[in-house]
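User: Before I run my own analysis I want an independent prediction to cross-check against. Here's the chain; please return only the structure tokens and, at the end, one sentence I can use as a sanity check.
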Amino acid sequence: MHTDYVHWWSPRLERTMEIMVYGHAGTPILAFPSSMGRFYEWRDFGMVDALADKLHHGQNQLFCVDSVDGESLYNRGVDPYVRIKRHQQYEQYVLQEVLPFIYDRATSDFVIAAGASFGAYHAANLVWKQPWSFGKLIAMSGAFDIRSFMDGFYDENVYFSNPVDYLPNLEDWGTLDAIRDTHIILTAGEHDPCRGANDYMSHILDSKGIGHYYERADGFGHDWPWWCDQVRRHV
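Assistant: Structure tokens:
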């Protein structure tokens, strides 16, 4: 399997950011790590192996990005306003730097956004805010409400980064139609701590007429063996 380590200085984050690329061709997958995870997490926890056949045969190309969660929403050492602004800088890094890199390297511009746990939040939030840039979402065991990271602070920056707030109020038909054209997959385990968050998100999507597939896996469902199985079946 072709493997490539790439890094560059991000002007939006003002730091070096790293990416691992697996595969030589095929539909690109933008893979987000879980909470405070790194760009090598999908390799270390078996997700790359789960997709090995598709990557080897050129069906998919996997782009594993780094996170800055420890500098943004998980950074309790700074003011909540600083946390959310750093998070927004990360969003712009992905949209303005990573996506053009993927378009340049991939053989298809149909991008799948995927992630597990907090990585599912990152993937889903970007798909719903910028649906024209993505063709498919695979959100596994996602948690979609970031207010617990804000210590009571709330402003429009938090609102527009919090899907459970902005999605129910979204009325722009162009954006809604673009989301409806996206293939959306949510998964959670029957005893997953994020099961309730996914039940609620599925309800929100239904209320907006957004078609999606919601899979409830048997068992706990919030761990890498489940996610390996789910990503293998849903990519």
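Sanity check: The longest helix spans residues 80-105.
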